[in-house]
């Protein structure tokens, strides 16, 4: 793999889209507004620890940056759990009071978006892919938060 890119399942992620990395994990901006292993259960103890410590650090900074009051961490581990990219990753979602009428509706929203992605690789018609420059700019902003 080109050292300019990280591997995310079958996809290549440019290093400018990555804002934090450790030996085993990395945090990246999302194409649509973290280890090359297919399943969470396949991680070693060291990789699992690193992944969650990375998620904790990134989540803490993103919560403050987005003036949120809480965080939701999600992993879909395997196809029946809604995993659409065959690669272990955690979604870190800063949360604010009232962002969903019922708190657990976020899981239905995530599940719905994941199913649409699996069907069409197009999460929805209103949400557009961001361009490389937008993603690199956001990653630069988050990189500063974590340095």
Describe the overall structure.
It is a single chain. With 147 residues, this protein is α+β, with helices and mostly antiparallel strands. The protein is built from three helices and six strands, in the order ββββαββαα. It has helices at residues 45-65, 105-120, 132-145; strands spanning 5-8, 11-14, 18-21, 26-28, 70-74, 91-95. It has a two-stranded antiparallel sheet with strand order 1-2. A two-stranded antiparallel sheet has the order 3-4. Strands 5-6 form a two-stranded antiparallel sheet. β1 (5-8) and β2 (11-14) form a beta hairpin. The longest helix has 21 residues, at 45-65. The chain is globular and about 45 Å long. 16% of the residues are buried. Mean pLDDT is 80; it is low at 120-124.
Number of helices: 3
Q: Give me the count of strands.
A: 6
Detail the poorly predicted runs. Answer: 120-124
Indicate the percent of residues in helices. Answer: 25-40%
Overall pLDDT level: 80
Rg over alpha carbons: 15 Å
Instruction: Report strand order across the widest sheet.
Output: 1-2
**Looking at the structure, what is the overall shape?**
globular
| Oligomerization status of the protein chains | single chain
**What is the H-and-E element order?**
EEEEHEEHH
Largest sheet: 2 strands, antiparallel
Distance between the termini: 26 Å
Work out the strand percent: 15-25%
- SSE-based structural type: alpha+beta
Question: What characteristics describe this protein?
Answer:
147 residues; alpha+beta; two-stranded antiparallel ribbon; 6 strands; 35% helix; globular
């Amino acid at each position: 793999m080109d050292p300019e890119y990280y591997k995310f399942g079958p996809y290549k992620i440019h290093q400018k889209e990555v804002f934090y990395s450790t030996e085993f994990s990395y945090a990246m901006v999302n194409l649509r507004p973290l280890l090359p292993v297919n399943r969470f259960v396949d991680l070693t103890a060291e990789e699992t620890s690193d992944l969650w410590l990375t998620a904790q650090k990134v989540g803490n900074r993103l919560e403050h940056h987005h003036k949120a009051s809480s965080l939701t961490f999600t992993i879909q581990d395997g196809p029946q759990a809604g995993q659409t990219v065959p690669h272990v990753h955690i979604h870190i979602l800063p949360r604010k009071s009232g962002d969903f009428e019922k708190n657990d509706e976020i899981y239905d929203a995530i599940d719905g978006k994941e199913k649409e992605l699996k069907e069409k690789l197009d999460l929805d018609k209103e949400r557009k892919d961001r361009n490389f420059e937008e993603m690199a700019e956001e990653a630069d902003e988050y990189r500063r938060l974590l340095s």
